[in-house]
Design goal:
6 helices, about 160 residues, two-stranded antiparallel ribbon, extended, alpha+beta, single chain
Amino acid sequence: MKMVYKETDRITKEVIEEILQIEKEDGLTATNLLERAKDKESPLHKFFDWSDVKAGVKWRLHQARLLLNEIKVIVNEIEMPGIESVIVKTNTLSEEEAERVYKPINEILSNEDLRVQVIRTALTHIEYWKNQYSIYGELKPIVTSIEKTKKSLEKKWQKKKQ
């Protein structure tokens, strides 16, 4: 199987080569990648926030999100997330100013707009998973089911728009 690494504006040939060099020399771990990125001359350096103050705030925000994700509810004996993140748009906010907030699952389930938003987000995550794992033939039935479900939902949502 011929494999070519895809270059983008951010992931340049130099970045790919640096990562592959780390894999070859030290083993590719997050720790080894970060260690190499500390060098200001490394093409990886620009991917990290080197200000401890800014990085500290970002880390605590990440921890807050993790805490919110730990809240669960049990519905019909099935455990599920108790809170989901959604984007809330109001008449006073423009599209760019819309804010990502967390809402209780019962509120999302009872609000069609929020419900569709969460399902669309889920489909985006599933599409990512599908693209990552569709190369494995053993997972073909799941990939086929994802594609079928996505088409069905898009068709349903198109009808509602009309």
